[in-house]
Amino acid sequence: MYKYIWQIIILPGxxxxxxxxxxxxxxxxxxxxxxxxxxxxxLQSVSLLLNNNGTPDEYGYMTLPLKVFNEENLLPWxxxxxxxxxxxxxxxxxxxxxxxxxxxxxxxxxxxxxxxxATKAHKSFKKTFLFNQxxxxxxxxxxxxxxxxxxxxxxxxxxxxxxxxxxxxxxxxIYHSRHIFVKCDSIDLKLDFKMTPTPKQEAMVAVxxxxxxxxxxxxxxxxxxxxxxxxxxxxxxxxxxxxENAGGFIDWGRGVWTYNTFWVFxxxxxxxxxxxxxxxxxxxxxxxxxxxxxxxxAFFIDDVMFKLNLVQPEFDENxxxxxxxxKTVGTSKRDFKECxxxxxxxxxxxxxxxxxxxKSEMRTTYGQYSGWVTDENNKKHTFxxxxxxxxxxxxxx
Length: 397
Fold this sequence. Notes:
single chain; about 400 residues; AttH-like fold; 13-stranded antiparallel sheet; nine-stranded antiparallel sheet; about 5% helix
């Protein structure tokens, strides 16, 4: 009898509640209002990220990952909301290829994307992992301390081989180089390259509170302009990845997120007329607007990071193929930099997941960036047609 009660009443009831909870009760998340007067606090001390109640002691930005993510200090409920991801990409004068692995405790994902800016050819692969199959991501894989092999990641499946290996960098005590190998037969793509940060490589590092009580937070390390060498084969076409035509990027994220999630992230990379490598980094839409210690808006020339004033992106969410504008607004108590940049999309991709209470939608546009930025001497650097992308993410997870 109890079996029939479970099958006829309880299980359908739970499914119905889950459906309504995920689809009707909670509204779609939207952009968080941002505050132009965010103090943009720079953090400079090496320390553990979390205190005993699972809350970061400091919020702000850094140019190096000075905070150690002591995951063991998270409260039990926080561990159920912990999200981790490692993202790597390379942008060349011809294409972008990206590799991402995510662990959200109860579900995991590996993603591979390739876009050719010349032909507008796009290839994409996504694999979802459940329960004990979820890839285990290290809490400190962005650093080069101790035994680097502990941060290696290997996925070997029938339709995907992915290896991210950390190797000693003889000239750097801060970072390790990464050898990334991917073979995906279903999209006929094979990638084999190495990224090697310089000893002076800076990053856009931020610790951001996501709610007013601050027990939801995000710790991120975004490091572009990394010298990269290797090759990629897509079907019968082979392309070289070299120091002269490419730059690598690491996006490392760890945090305790709320159920409703929204963000806008944009990135571009290329070369200035003087031959120096330039990268753009914009992120917004998440975080407690009155408690933020910093934004992630920045640009890089070679291995040096320049902090921008607050950037509020302007775009048409109903038609992401319309031009976007990234422009600094407001004022700052410190001498941060300015920019005015137009992003012209060429191609749009959409990925979605719907598992009742777990939902996500990622819309990515690929295109080119043109505009200007100012450096530490208030010198204006102009550029045209930097290859890059912009993405909008909405999720309930």
